[in-house]
Amino acid sequence: MEDESRESRNKARLAIMELANMISVPMSLNAICRLNVPDAIWQGGSNSPLSASQILARVLPSGDPENLQRILRMLTSYGVFDEQLTDSERKYSLTEIGKTLVTDAEGLSYAPYVLQHHQDALMGAWPLVHEAVVDPACEPFVKANGEPAYDYYGKRSEMNTLMQSAMSGVSVPFVKALLDGYDGFEGVQRLVDVGGSAGDCLRMILRKHPNVLEGINFDLPEVVAKAPRFLVRVVIVFVHYFL
To answer: What DSSP character marks residue 127?
Structure first.
């Protein structure tokens, strides 16, 4: 073993401690999304720096501002919030990263993506990851919940709805950027979106490219059942179980 007093060993010890406690980051993100903190700060675009007490007053009738401030300060160190010290009071506004958690005019946000990843059923599978090495025949999610993830989601409408919101919040900004500079859909008449979820990507492509005469949203029955019907040309929703 190397000399334990060497700077490299000290850095290594600090690094492994940070990794061991890394769960505090997604759990804190989950907390601020559950509490609607980003929308409370954003307030229609003002993004004015607010203290923990001021934020709390906007999201809950009562609560502990000190504990909220601890979460805010920790996420500030990861670039989610900006912290300002004014008259001995800490105030917080959203960074560019934090703004991704704000609900936009279309009702979309990355907040559902954060929440979806930290539901109890998924969190219960993580401590069993090592079991995938011991027994690869049964995935950790099944061991934790008794059935595969898609079957589990399909029976729970609230989880399915959250998944769709998460996928829409993530995919729509990327497709907007894609459509600004990609012309590969020109000349296409029939377009299939495999795993299209709520069909947001398909809808955006059809609206920009009138040459696409037919759009097919190909996903699980419980997913497309809640997908909105579009008012643009012909859209066929085809349901099928993935093999």
So the answer is: G
Using the CB atoms, write b or e for 16-48: b if 16+ within 10 Å. Answer: eeeeeeeeeeeebbbbbbebbbbbbbbeeeebe
pLDDT tens, residue by residue, 45-61: 999 999 999 999 999 99
Q: Which of 237, 238, 221 is nearest to 229 (CA)?
A: 237
Q: How many residues does the chain have?
A: 243
Closest CA to 209 of 227, 196, 191, 193: 191
Instruction: For the beta carbon of residue 131, count every other beta carbon within 10 angstroms.
Output: 16
Residue 69 gets the label, from left (phi > 0), alpha (psi -120 to 50) or beta, of alpha
Outline where DSSP puts E strands in the chain: 81-86, 89-94, 190-194, 214-219, 234-239
Average pLDDT rounded to a whole number, residues 118-123: 94
Two tokens, residue 104: 């936009």
**What is the pTM (predicted TM-score) of this model?**
0.80
Task: Work out the average pLDDT over 54-75.
Answer: 96
Q: Locate 54 and state its tokens.
A: 């001021």
Beta strands in 14-80 (DSSP E): none
Residue 55, Cα to own-chain centre: how many angstroms? Answer: 22
Q: What is the mean pLDDT of residues 91-102?
A: 97
Cα 8–chain centre separation: 35
